[in-house]
Structure formats: structure tokens, C-alpha cells
Design brief:
With 619 residues, the chain is mainly beta. It is built from eight helices and 32 strands. The strands form six sheets. An eight-stranded antiparallel beta barrel has the order 1-2-3-4-5-7-8-9.
């Protein structure tokens, strides 16, 4: 390949790499508009310093010289991107050079003009969103790349300004306009600061190493000349998905109301203080916490407690509880508490006196009619103080009931030996459609799991951990993982001879087979009274679909920020249509309760419950 063609290699590589990487990172069938998203353009200016054999000097001549650049890029993931950079700069340095006319080394200064283009990758070290799920206002990153530099260099004597040497002059050079052409490898560090959702300020420093020792006209010492480019610039990102969400907190609002209007709202209560607040408590904020038992067996009722510190304010505690219709709330002192059942649960109103600075209120939760399963328990409410202030609260807990632990198991017969041999159970912790989940994300979610296996089937990626002899052991470990990680939607799945056995899972669950009467240990429970297979038997979970879009994918970070709950969010694509689901529930009633929560409390309007079987929607 001749040298004139070599200088166009980076241009070709930049196009090919961006296309190839973008295709690999996207869906198999990219929606229309993908190429319009997350493009970047940057302009910067700064100074260059010679770092080779002829170094810069702060003498007013061979010191800091100007440089400027323009680059275009593509943000491929929240942490990784590619950019193609054009750069023009001047360079100067001093040292001893051999002068032919003097037949000796003389003190000299070189001056170079450099035009460079390179293809670089940049990687952000910090996650794009902070612990409060708000976009990070600053970040640090590293860059590395390769390209070509075209330069012309002239050196003159510092004694009499006579000519000493040069390179890159016509017609000797093979670069642009006869300049010297050599490969260059820039690496550096930078920091950016968000000025708006689309605009960032960048501070960056890159060390450029050229594959030649001729840049400063002196061939000696280290065989590769170097120069440092430090700059400040602005980056504009087109069609970014970042939104400056204000993070949610438990104290959602605090505003003033007219104390004279409170008797009209709560006619059954009256004020003793007319809103006066002790100056000691004036700058303190009322705090409310809810305690709900996380596990139930067969007890007919349990206590739930409200720990409330009113910060010296008199007012009304007005709370709404949303839960399964089988639950009920009762109170011992019906004269003090005002209970009003409704379609979603119960409203509770309670008068709090100014002197009740710290109180624990106990309510009875009736659970006798609740089936086995995991159920959300939501509390939203406010404390309306006669001082004119209102404080809002929100909390969500989960109650898990396992009524089977209260029953004695019946006798067993044995199954023929070897029928269910080689069966093990594992816990499926994650699944993904079409694309594998990055190992770094799995490690971040499950840092204590030594081995998480990946399997593929029909375009799905499944991730499992552990190995157990019975489903009960796997279920117990699943509960520990869900509690430890805060994630839900995990499953105990069956393997026979180290292969996932859908057939044996169906047998085990009792699908149209007498073998379904046996558990994994070969025991037959008595009596057996299983219903015939139906559409319900094809369902193993329910998810709540709360958002859909055509062609354009939604930002998962934005959705998580708006949700305000710890339910895992999943994305499913069907061609150019994208559906987003929250949660994973065994019972449809639980999913319905969560769907109502998303509509009534969070504000989503297009919400519905969808049945799933083995990670796929049941049509």
C-alpha cells in the first residue's frame, strides 16, 4: 500500500468501527431513529508542550503553543463511546542540534506545525446516575486511540537565527502537502461537567506519541517523540435520554395552609393550640415509620406499628393503606382512630396532640383469609399540622405468607427407583431477551455469588446460581437472595442430568400427568386432588406493564427514578415495539394491587397486568 493511501485508513476505520460496534450493542433489528440518538460534537482549544528530546522552556519562545480540535462521536453505552478527532496545533522546544554549516552542535529552537486525525474510544469511570438516581453532574473519563500526524518542522540557531535543519517540506514528505507522515497514539484523562441535559464542559489532557524521532529534528534518546495537549471545550449531545429528574424523598412536600380551614376538612377533630409550636421544635420535622411483619404462617392476626414523632406540632395524621382484599385493619380504640375501608384498603385518621412528641400506634392486621404468597403493603399519607404545615410520607413493604408451614404433611408412598434420578434445582436470578446481560452488571447485583451460569434458549438468556436436591431448599435460598439484593422475580428451576428439563418441570407441577403427584425425592403425597390442566396452569407469574413505545426505547434510568419502588423493571422488544414491565408476582391479585398503586400513587395511566410463563407473555 502506498503512503498516500495510508493517510485515509483512520477515516475508513472510524466509519467501520462505529457501525460495527453500534450494531453489536443494539437490538438485532434496530428501530428507526437509532442513528439519530446520542451523537456528540465537541470543540476545544488549549496549549501544547513538547515532551521529546527538544523540550519546551519557559523563556518566552519555546514555551506553551496553541492548539485546537474538533471531534464527532457516538455514545454507544452510558459508559463507552467512540470519537473521530481533527486537531491542528503548533509546537516548540529548545536543545542542542548539529548544524552542518558550523560543523558542530549549536543551541537551537525547533518550531513545528502539526495536523492530526485519530479515532479514539472514551470510557467513563463513574456510573451516569448517582445513588439518588439523579443524573451525575460531573464525571471523569479516559481516552485512547490511534491515528496519523502530518507535520512540518524547522529548526534555527538561537545564536544568530541561522537555519539548522528541517523535515516535512515539499517534496520530501509523504503526508498532506509534502509533510512528514507518521502514526500517532493519543492517551489521556478528562473530566466533564453537565451544564444542561445536552451540553457539557470538558477539561482534558492527552499525551500524543508519534512513531518517529524526527518531530523535533533531533534523533537521539527515546525513539518516539511526544507532545502534551491540554484543552478546555464544550460537548453537545443530540437527542440525549438524560433528564434532570429531582430525586424523590420520603418527605415529598412541605407547604403552608390556612389553619382556619382545617376544621372544615376534619370536622370530627378540634384544635387546642391554634397551631402554636414550641420554638424548640420549630426547625424540626415530623418523622413517621411503618413496621409490618415480613413473614406470616397461620396466625389469624398480627400487629403493625406506626412510630410517629410529631416535632411538637398538633395536627391530624391522615394515612391511606393499600393491600390485598383478604387483609383487614382493625383498632382497639375506635373512639381515637377513625377507620374508613375503601376499594383499595383502608383510610385512617388520628388526632395527634402537641405534647405527643413520640408515640407508637399499634393496629391489628387480620390475616386469616389470606392465601400463601407475597403481597405488597403500601402506605401513603400526610400529617396536617394546625400550624399550617403539611408533611407527606410514603412507604412500601412486602408480606410473605406460607400457610404450608403450619400443616402436618401426610404420609408418603415411594415412586419407582430411578424415575426422577439426576434431578437438581437451581435459582434463576435474571433473564434477558436477545442480548446477554453484561458480566459487570451481574457482579454488581450479586457480588457474593461465586458462580452464576448463563444459558441460552430460543433467543433468551437465563442466569442461574446454586444447586439443591429439593425445590424447598432452592426456594429458601431464593428468598434469602431476594431479601439480600432487594430484587424480585427469581425462580426455582429444575434440571435433570445438568440440563434444564421443561418436561420434568411440567410433570413436577402436575400438568396432565399422574407423575405430577410425586416430588423431587420420589415421595407421593396423600391425598392428591389436582385440577385438570387449564389456561391457569400455563401461568407461573404476573408482571405489570406500565409503559409502551413504538420505535424509540425508553431510558431505564428515567423509569426507575419515576417508579420510586424496588421492583425490577424489564424491557421486551417485538420488532419496533417496546414494552416495559415492573415486578413479578405469583398471584394476579397481588399484581392488580401493584397496578393500582402505579396508577393511583405514581401516576401511570396505561397500566395492565400480563400473565407470563417461563419468562414469556402468555397470549
Amino acid at each position: 500500500m502506498n503512503c498516500s493511501a495510508r493517510k485515509y485508513i483512520p477515516l475508513l476505520l472510524s466509519a467501520l468501527l462505529i457501525i460495527a460496534t453500534g450494531t453489536a450493542m443494539g437490538q438485532k433489528k434496530q428501530p428507526v431513529g437509532w442513528w439519530q440518538k446520542d451523537w456528540l460534537i465537541n470543540v476545544s482549544g488549549g496549549g501544547t508542550l513538547a515532551m521529546g528530546d527538544m523540550k519546551f522552556a519557559w523563556d518566552g519562545n519555546a514555551d506553551l503553543k496553541e492548539g485546537y480540535s474538533l471531534w464527532f462521536g457516538k455514545q454507544l453505552t452510558p459508559s463507552l463511546g467512540l470519537r473521530f478527532q481533527l486537531m491542528n496545533s503548533r509546537l516548540s522546544g529548545t536543545g542542542m542540534l548539529f548544524q552542518t554549516s558550523a560543523a558542530a552542535e549549536v543551541p537551537a529552537e525547533f518550531r513545528a506545525n502539526i495536523f492530526e486525525y485519530n479515532l479514539s474510544a472514551f470510557y467513563y469511570f463513574l456510573k451516569p446516575y448517582g445513588s439518588d438516581k439523579a443524573p451525575r453532574s460531573w464525571n471523569i473519563y479516559a481516552t485512547a486511540g490511534a491515528g496519523y500526524a502530518h507535520w512540518v518542522t524547522t529548526a534555527n540557531s538561537l545564536i544568530d537565527q541561522s537555519f539548522v535543519s528541517s523535515n516535512g517540506n515539499k517534496p520530501n514528505g509523504k503526508g498532506i502537502n509534502g509533510r512528514t507522515l507518521e502514526a500517532v497514539f493519543p492517551v489521556g484523562l478528562g473530566a466533564d461537567f453537565m451544564l444542561s441535559p445536552n451540553l457539557k464542559l470538558n477539561l482534558e489532557s492527552n499525551l500524543h506519541t508519534v512513531s518517529s524521532d524526527k518531530l523535533d529534528n533531533k534523533v537521539a534518546g527515546f525513539p518516539y517523540d511526544q507532545y502534551l495537549y491540554t484543552s478546555a471545550g464544550l460537548t453537545y449531545q443530540f437527542n440525549t435520554n438524560i433528564r434532570l429528574w429531582k430525586p424523590k424523598t420520603k418527605e415529598l412536600a412541605r407547604y403552608q395552609t390556612d389553619p382556619d380551614l382545617l376544621p372544615l376538612r376534619y370536622t370530627q377533630f378540634s384544635s387546642l393550640t391554634r397551631g402554636a409550636v414550641d420554638p424548640y421544635f420549630k426547625n424540626k420535622t415530623p418523622q413517621l415509620s411503618l413496621t409490618v411483619p415480613s413473614k406470616l404462617t397461620s396466625e389469624p392476626e398480627v400487629n403493625i406499628t406506626l412510630n410517629f414523632q410529631n416535632a411538637g406540632r398538633e395536627g391530624i395524621l391522615d394515612l391511606d393503606f393499600a393491600f390485598q382484599p383478604e387483609f383487614q385493619i382493625e383498632v382497639a380504640d375506635k373512639n381515637r382512630y377513625l377507620l374508613s375501608p375503601n376499594g383499595q384498603g383502608t383510610n385512617l385518621q388520628l388526632k395527634v396532640n402537641a405534647g405527643d412528641t413520640s408515640n407508637v400506634y399499634t393496629l391489628r392486621l387480620l390475616t386469616a383469609g389470606v392465601p400463601s404468597g407475597s403481597f405488597p403493603f403500601f402506605m401513603t399519607g400526610r400529617f396536617v399540622a394546625y400550624s399550617g404545615e403539611t408533611f407527606h410520607y410514603k412507604e412500601m413493604e412486602y408480606i410473605e405468607k406460607d400457610a404450608s408451614k403450619s400443616r402436618q404433611r401426610a404420609g408418603y408412598d415411594s415412586v419407582p427407583e430411578g424415575l426422577l434420578s439426576g434431578i437438581k434445582f437451581r435459582v434463576q436470578v435474571l433473564s434477558s431477551k436477545d442480548h446477554p446481560i453484561p458480566e459487570t452488571k451481574i457482579t454488581a447485583l450479586f457480588p457474593d455469588e461465586k458462580k452464576i451460569s448463563e444459558e441460552t434458549e430460543s433467543g433468551w438468556y437465563y442466569y442461574t446460581t446454586g444447586e439443591f436436591g429439593t425445590r424447598d431448599e432452592a426456594d429458601e435460598y431464593k428468598k434469602k437472595l431476594e431479601k439480600k439484593t432487594g430484587l424480585s422475580g427469581m425462580y426455582s428451576v429444575m434440571y435433570q442430568n445438568d440440563k434444564r428439563s421443561h418436561k420434568m418441570e411440567e410433570i413436577y407441577e402436575g400438568y396432565q400427568s399422574e407423575l405430577g403427584k410425586f416430588d423431587a425425592l420420589g415421595n407421593l403425597s396423600k391425598p392428591v386432588n389436582r385440577p385438570a390442566a387449564s389456561q391457569q396452569s400455563l401461568i407461573d407469574e404476573y408482571r405489570v406493564r406500565f409503559h409502551s413505545s413504538h420505535e424509540f426505547r425508553a431510558s431505564m434510568a428515567e423509569l426507575e427514578t419515576r417508579m420510586g419502588t424496588e421492583e425490577i423493571i424489564t424491557e421486551m422488544a417485538d420488532g419496533e415495539d417496546y414494552d416495559y414491565y415492573a415486578g413479578s408476582f405469583r398471584k394476579k391479585a397481588t399484581a392488580n394491587a401493584y397496578a393500582e398503586y402505579l396508577k393511583q400513587i405514581v401516576g401511570f395511566t396505561d397500566v395492565d397486568v400480563v400473565a407470563f410463563k417461563k419468562g414469556k407473555p402468555v397470549k
